[in-house]
Design brief:
By secondary structure, the chain is an all-alpha fold. It is 74% helix and 0% strand. The protein starts with a helix and ends in a 10-residue tail after the last helix.
């Protein structure tokens, strides 16, 4: 046997290194292409957000009018300027207005400023808010968002995680009892998920806060806040019940119905019938032949759920006066506070883009049929 044959056989070290290098290059090319695609997608999405948030320059007009009105009122109210000649006073007002517009960059075309906004957003330089402040008086968008983040994570994390895992477990149970009373009851109640969480929140406030007076109307904690940590935690938990319950009730039945139908489809496969014919326990059948093939879908839904924890529930938080990112975004839209809107959007865009990228590798781990970068 020749030396070339020995070195090129599949089991030799050279062949193994060649396969490893080929796999590495395949994954590297795939990651590079996906990263470029992700950055292009994020860039387009953020720039569109900047255009929409500015309403094509309409917000600039509003800001110029506000600067003109505030400057004029402050100059008129200042006793030092009352005795000046009208021409001098008007000149000072115009100079003050021009200085303020220059400070905010309004003297530049919107196309130029939008590119600057885009560059700052992509580098996570979120800048300063125009009207909003943090609880400590800071206008830094980063501090405003970080200050509201814990409350949003508490509400969305508690409600969405309970909703997700509860729906999957209940749906798996109902898939074993197809046609039972509970199964029919879930189908009957699934249309109730057409109503948003804030719709149920209004009724829960009316019933449990206004009529029964057993739960608070809204907010994060009692006023004044309790002195001890235990009492403070119990107060937050009490305020969390109604908003979390409204989120769960608004989606629980439809979520159970969707997962139950999904599990029923997989439980009717031929290999499941074969496993039942072999006498395998039902628990093993569910774990190996139903849950394992559906794991990529479960992972995808869970990953997308984790991303939505950042956004919060805008109207629901507003109804319950929950001091999270949702109500912050709602107020930012009302104030035309573009930096806060863009800052919240860019972080969500980054989370979404890189989670989708990471999911490709997770699929390869949970599903042996998937190979990263194989194109199949």
């Amino acid at each position: 046997m020749s030396t070339e044959t020995l070195t090129s056989s599949p089991g030799t070290p050279i062949a193994k290194r060649s396969r490893a290098n080929s796999t590495f290059m395949r994954i590297f090319r795939y990651v590079a292409v996906r990263l470029v695609t992700v950055m292009i997608t994020v860039t387009i999405g953020v720039y569109l957000t900047i255009l929409i948030a500015n309403m094509g320059g309409y917000v600039d007009t509003i800001m110029r009018n506000e600067i003109r009105d505030n400057t004029t009122q402050s100059m008129i109210a200042n006793p030092a300027f009352r005795n000046l000649a009208p021409e001098v006073r008007q000149k000072l007002i115009q100079e003050k207005i021009a200085s303020e517009e220059d400070r905010l960059g309004l003297n530049q075309p919107f196309a130029v400023r939008s590119m600057k906004y885009l560059s700052n957003a992509l580098t996570l330089n979120l800048g300063r808010a125009l009207h909003m402040n943090s609880d400590h008086g800071s206008k830094e968008v980063r501090l405003i968002l970080l200050e509201r983040l814990p409350a949003t994570l508490l509400l969305t994390g508690t409600s969405e995680l309970l909703l997700f895992f509860g729906s999957v477990l209940i749906a798996l149970t109902l898939s074993r009892k197809y046609g039972s009373f509970l199964d029919k009851l879930t189908i009957a109640f699934s249309p109730t998920s057409s109503a948003p969480p804030w719709f149920y929140g209004i009724f829960f406030i009316l019933i449990f806060a206004a009529i029964l007076r057993v739960l608070p109307f809204g907010g994060l904690v009692d006023s004044p806040p309790p002195a001890t940590k235990l009492a403070y935690g119990l107060s937050v938990l009490k305020h969390l019940i109604l908003p979390a319950m409204s989120v769960i009730i608004s989606s629980i039945f439809l979520s159970i119905y969707n997962w139950r139908t999904f599990f029923l489809i997989y439980s009717s496969e031929d290999y499941v019938d074969m496993a039942k014919a072999k006498g395998l326990p039902s628990r093993d059948i569910e774990r190996r032949y139903i849950l394992r093939p559906t794991l990529p879908t479960i992972v995808t839904n869970f990953a997308l759920l984790v991303i939505t924890l950042w956004t919060g529930f805008t109207i629901t938080e507003t109804v319950f006066l929950w001091p999270g990112l949702g109500i912050t975004l709602f107020r930012a839209i009302g104030f035309y506070d573009t930096p806060v809107i863009v800052g919240s959007t860019i972080i969500y865009a980054y989370l979404l883009a890189f989670t989708v990228l990471l999911l490709d590798f997770v699929y390869a781990l949970v599903d042996p049929r998937v190979k990263v970068g194989s194109g199949s």
